[in-house]
């Protein structure tokens, strides 16, 4: 089994880059600081209005039309996907 | 209401002979002009007496959520606000803008200090509505309550009584901080006393929205993933089908809740910790009762200072967020995501009600070495018990420990990178 882009070995969701775990350790001090800061100050916490507010949808109309197939994409998720975006946050970090 | 003698007259605030309902809503006079539901139609200022003994020493019994006379222990409750004002009406039939009279625009020129004539002895008593809606007559010791809505936002449409007792709040705050003591600032650790918690009614706007939404864009569905060899490394590649996606629907948002105090709206976490108070939402606002300032006895309150015009943009943006997230249940096929390019949310009807919601608040003013101060909160939702807080950090201790972790991590990381793990 092969493609023009390269040889396919197996279907997998792994990035397959060696040494990734080691690089996490190289950032361990920064990660530790960030984790403790968030645990004590909780600056990332907010009311999740988008999911915690009661709402009902009615008369839902769905229109889906196939456009094209894409091959050899490098990103796990769609570029520019915004269906989980939240814009009504009152929280500001800066 | 249980255990009430039928011979005892019912309290005035529970007067069912003069209910305020949607029928009382006046017709629209101009396009886009809010229709006002009079939520203080039968409210009276002055002496609110116990129906059994006539005392004015009335306060909330947190254990039962009812008002209790301090002398004869008679208990009663105000009407449920949602039923009294028909605020639970069908959202699908909501058109235009409906507001409770306590949500009307604040008039800046309104005097904040009001003078009451005591209904018991005739003395004149001053109430500063900036700080309280109750005062005790200095001559006859009766409590005077202000329940009618003045135009300065001091009296809301409804109030949600405390139901979490102070002892529970103290326990939760102590537990929350107790888990965060190691890196807490030493001054905070020395001064922390959970008993200093205060019960505060904070002002919010509760909004129902009837909207029609149309979202259009593109979505991707993964058909395959595989590994390719690029140089010496393995990399994952994905195949996907691209679709044009449109979703059109009616949406009914119930009890969207936004802060209506300008101080609380500002949630810049580098300047304040208001996000902590925001986090403990939502409240069970459907259990709110008609405003009665006797519910405030023993608690403090903060006045609303933001109008509907200022709060509409954030409420509508949050409603759009709700629409975007709710419709995801119809998009499970698009496992790589959907990119909406057009989002039209047409708000056809909206209903605004101002409310006092209960919070147990522990606050701590941190004085920093540069002379600046920062106010930390630990807040408990006084209905659900949800607790969140901000604890001042001992920065030098955290930096020292982080440095040690970094040192050890660097050594371990270099070894792992060298062996290719």
TrEMBL record, chain B:
- Highest taxon of the source? Bacteria
| Region annotation Disordered: where it falls in the sequence | 1-32
Can the keyword Membrane be found in this entry's annotation? yes
Q: Where are the transmembrane segments?
A: 398-419
Provide this UniProt record's keywords sorted from A to Z: Membrane, Transmembrane, Transmembrane helix
PANTHER family (alphabetical): FLOTILLIN BAND_7_5 DOMAIN PROTEIN (PTHR37826), J DOMAIN-CONTAINING PROTEIN (PTHR37826:SF3)
Under what name is this protein listed?
A: TFIIB-type zinc ribbon-containing protein
